[in-house]
Structure formats: C-alpha cells, structure tokens
Amino acid sequence: MSVGISASDLTLGHGGAPVARGISVALAPGEVTALVGPNGSGKSTLLRALARLHTPDAGQIVLDGRALGSYRPRELARKLSFLTQAPIVPAGVTVEELVAYGRHPHQGLLARGSGDGDREAVAWALDATNLRPLAERTLDRLSGGERQRAWIAMALAQRTGLLLLDEPTTYLDIRYQIEVLRLVRRLADEHGITVAVVLHDLNQAAAFSDAMVVLADGRIVATGPPGEALTEDTVRTAFRIDTTVTRDPRTGVPTCLPTWREPSAAAAAP
Fold first, then answer.
1. DSSP state for residue 138 in the 8-state scheme
2. Which of 43, 118, 161, 224 could form a disulfide with 114 if both were Cys (CB 3.0 to 4.6 A apart)?
3. How far apart are CA 73 and CA 265, in angstroms?
4. Separation CA 157–CA 121 (nearest Å)
5. Average pLDDT rounded to a whole number, residues 211-226
6. What is the mean predicted confidence (pLDDT) over 64-87?
7. Could you give the 3-state DSSP secondary structure of residue 170?
8. What is the DSSP letter of 263?
9. What pTM did the predictor assign?
10. What's residue 14's pLDDT?
11. Which of 155, 94, 92 is nearest to 121 (CA)?
12. What tens digit of pLDDT does each residue of 125-162 get?
C-alpha cells in the first residue's frame, strides 16, 4: 500500500515571485517525513506541490514511478490524500458521513449509495482512528482532537498509500497534538502509509518522524533522520536563534531547548 514520491530541483513561486528554489526531496515509502521551517520558508507550498495543488515553475515530481502531472484527477485521488489546515466543519454532518466523503474518488459518476468496498473502507478508517464509538456524533459535538481525527479518517477512507497533512496540530492543545501525532505514527507503523506532515514544533517533529526536512529562505538547509537534521547549527541557520540540542536518555530522540534570555551587553561585547 505504501507509495513513494520525490521532487527534483523544484522552483516554487506565487504570482511570479519565487518562494523556493532547488528543492529536492524524497518521501520514503511507509515512513513519516516532517517538513519544518520558519513562516514563509516554503514548507506548505512544497506540500501543496506534492499534492498537485500548486504547479512548480520548474523541476519534476514523480509519484509511484510516474510523473505527477500524468495522473488523471480521479486516478491521483486514489494514490494520495491531502488534508489542508483547519478545514471548515460542515453543519450537521456526522463523523461517519464525513468519513464517507473520502470514498468519492472510488465511486462512478452514476454511483448511488455505498457499496461493500465503500462501507469496508469507512469502517477501517473509523477503526484506525478509534472513532467507531463516535460515528453517529455530529462534528460540532466533538473535541478539537476528535474533530481532527475525523478529518484524518476521511482522508484515510480514500485508501491511498500517501497522506499529506498541512499543520494538523494547529489550534489544538498539547494533549490533542500528541494524540494526532501518535495516530500519524501508527498509520505508518501499522498500515504502511507514507506520511508527509508540516509541523511547527521541532521537538514533536523529531519525536514522531523518521526523517525531517528543514527549510529556510526557500531552500533546504538540512534533511535526514532527526538525529542528523535537528542540530544547533541547523536551528541557528533556519530560525536565527541559539539553542541547545540534547538527546532524550530514554529514546535517543533529539530535543531542542531555546536560549530564552538575550545575551547581556557585557557578554555580547567582543
């Protein structure tokens, strides 16, 4: 089920102005890749380009061995699913109804209702996100974390091998952020789904990903396993702040601790 996707020497722009140049990245099948960087670094634009929602000015994207542009829309929707930031919640829609929307790419133009394959996919998505007990509840009666899981379940119901998530933890408190990221980790580990996720929290990105791509000023400044990509030099280059990067003694995962206080005038003097 895993799907691989790679981008080579992309130039990405808005309104004729380039926001990123020379972007090359590969998402390994069945792994979680975190895209991180300061605001305006191009991470969400890159994710949208991988989803074919943004057309690169130059370069190539290859999905599952084929040029991304060669896929027909319905065919592409069976290969990858994309979840945007803070999607609008439809009024009066239940969790199960929302998840069922993910089956549209698999239904013909004259399809009525749901077939056995659709029902099976919806049931699988509900189970994978632990939402079966909430299937009949409307979205406006869910917590933030439950609602985000419902949107991810809708994307899962497409039954694609590639899931692209743009800041799925935005507006969630820490408990629900961790809940969503644990789900993302489980999707890769237990179901072999390839995941790319845009995150702001560097420590969360390091803890839950197999690989990190750090962007700044429209270019990639580091890429690789978290232990290699998240370094004091990388953070200084990308975010222009000083940090101490240590390793969690239990897991070995790198942890980034900012230097909160500004240096004193005496210490800053040459």
1. B
2. 118
3. 59
4. 5
5. 96
6. 92
7. coil
8. P
9. 0.89
10. 81
11. 155
12. 999 999 999 999 999 999 988 999 999 999 999 999 99
Concatenated DSSP letters for 80-111?
EEEE-SSPPPPTT-BHHHHHHGGGGGGS-TT-
Pairing of strands 32-36, 211-216: parallel
Q: Which two tokens stand for residue 171?
A: 């507006």
- 174-188 burial, b for 16+ CB within 10 Å, e for fewer? eebbbbbbebbbebb
- Taking CA 236 as the corner, what is the angle to CA 185 and CA 194, rounded to the nearest 5 degrees? 20
Q: What percentage of the chain exceeds 70 in pLDDT?
A: 92
Burial class from Cβ neighbours inside 10 Å (0-12, 13-18, 19+) for residue 8 reads middle
For 134, which DSSP code? G
Whether the CA torsion 52, 58, 62, 67 is positive or negative: it is positive
Secondary structure (DSSP) of 199-234: -S-HHHHHHH-SEEEEEETTEEEEEESHHHH--HHH
Q: State the CB neighbour count (10 A cutoff) for residue 166.
A: 22
Query: Tokens 């070995």 belong to which residue?
Result: 252
Three-state secondary structure call for residue 137:
coil
- Residue 254's DSSP bridge partners are 247
Look at residues 165, 174, 215, 219 and name the one whose alpha carbon lies nearest to residue 193. 165
Q: Per the structure block, which two tokens stand in for 227?
A: 């232990």
Q: Give the chain's length.
A: 270
Confidence grade of residue 171 (pLDDT, cut at 50, 70, 90): confident
